[in-house]
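Please predict the structure of the following assembly.
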Amino acid sequence: MKPEDKKRVLREMVVHRRFEERCYQAYIERKIGGFLHLYPGQEACCNGVMEAARPGYDYVITGYRDHIHAIKCGADPKRVMAELYGKETGASKGRGGSMHIFDTEHHFMGGYALVGGPFPLAAGIAKAIQLKGGDEIAICFLGDAANNQGTFHETMNMAARWNLPVLFVCENNLYGIGTAIERSTAVIHQHKRVSGYGIEAAETDGQDIEKVYDAALVAVQHVRSGKGPYFLELMTYRYRGHSMSDSRGYRSREEEELWKQRDPIFILRDRLISEQAMTMADYEAIEKDVDHYIENEVIKFAEESPEPKVEDLEKYVLAERDTQRRWLTGQA
Amino acid sequence: MAEMMYWEAIQRAHDEEMARDPLVICLGEDIGVAGGTYKATKGLYDKYGPLRVIDTPISENSYTGLGIGASYLGVRPIIEIMSVNFAWLAMDQMFNSAAKVRYMSGGQLTAPVVIRSAGGTAHQLGAQHSARMEKVFMGIAGLRVVTPSNPRQAYGLLKSAVRCDDPVYINEHELMYNMKGEVPDTEYFHPLEGSEVARSGTDVSLFGYNVSLHWCLKAAEILDKQYGISAEVVDLYCLSPLDRQGIRQSVAKTHRAVAVGEDEAPVSVGSEVIAIINEESFFDLDAAPVRINSATVPQPYNHTLEKATIPDHEDVVSAVLKLFGKA
């Protein structure tokens, strides 16, 4: 990665970290309801892959841990936070919530809350790209546990058979909800599982953004050049529990500390300092600036935004009647 | 007006829509090279090629999801699920993705897919190939459900479903693919909402759809000729949303109602029709509305047992006679 890109991405990753930590606080304050799945620890995955791809151009789809993927595609953090607050100004107008952020303008095709559900949707997006003849690719970010769903195997088979332009990114954070991967899954290294479908695959360190970026460049190039699907596995770790009701009793604090020593933000920060591209004081200034931005812009926007109107409750269930009149009534 | 078979009408709708719009595709098991189990996609593979007429692996949930994902980008997939029994496997994608995506994205995305499948009981196909699932689909917000009772509807409903921006499930019937009927020679779009009065009458309303509509029509004939009872037959070709106004208007005229379906009684189409009658027409009624359904059992293989589970026109006739105190 180029030095200026690394500095830019470092700041973005700090935004992503602070955004999620601020969500946690807002959840405790009961400003955010429902389920909340946070991303700290995994930032290098989404950022590294999307730096190698074309955010806002390539189509991205993911599961319920989706805030940062949406933001990385170009969604305004203010609108993502407003969605978590359930506001009309939210990314999904307050109808989706944390697990269902959408921003189609930036080709972020949504967060979905059925584990493994996005696999076939991603393949379908790729099928549409193939039919239309564009050079976009579909990128599907999911966790390791999604690979135990039937949709994983069904989709790998179809994507390979039809040579679809789709990149599957497996963020292997070693836990499916509260069950360690070795307790639920016969194979820990997930990229091995797609070899039976003849899909190109690789695994890399998901904590070091430059390693992610380098591996993703190969993956993206493979898919975009028409060689069919690719499966990229990133070994990573989520610091917080699966969702908010999770006290992490299924793993040790020592294990968590070990992973935190390989924090993706600190790895990049320390590298930039050692390369003399920045100083610790510069980094502290970024943190301060980001905190100010999150509090005074992002949170402020979410707090001050209006609630959806109850009279609009049934809006968006079906298409606007006026636009469908001919098909609904048979009258031209 | 040309006479054609139900399957031919469906095939024609596919062909016209695919010829018009290169983004209309179809996918499903055995629909391409093999021409479709019920011939509904016959000849399309040769005409439009493997990129648009896609023989899928036997992976119902994922090929349905693939069609839904493609529809996000403006593709109009017609997905054939060979038998409705296999649609149980696709319900995750049908319900969690197609039906909900517009709502949970705040109107940004829509899934304009058409999902067709053959439902109902044919001949001795056993418990796992004889399901009636329309009751399940019609309860899902965000999904339209239609069910053609003749070739004209089969053609026109598919045409409209392909054009509509909402996901539409089309419930066909295994026993009806060879049924003949008139279909307009020119392009025809059947409304996706509403109901049709298939036979006008004054004494009792018979609500049927798909195969059960034909039991109602036969029963109406007998009631008229043998008992002097004038039955109105209402075709509920649209199961979601059900036509409240059409149901109300008919009951206001006849004051008696029988809801007839091949599904099992608990949580059936008939349950919903009668609930609507209670809500809309209670004070118009001269008798409590009744429903006629299949026995609530997994479908038996044995021919005699199978026949005993499925109602027919005679059951409709006796139910009506009871309403009039004649049985």
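Chain B is about 40% helix and 20% strand. The longest strand of chain B covers residues 257-264.
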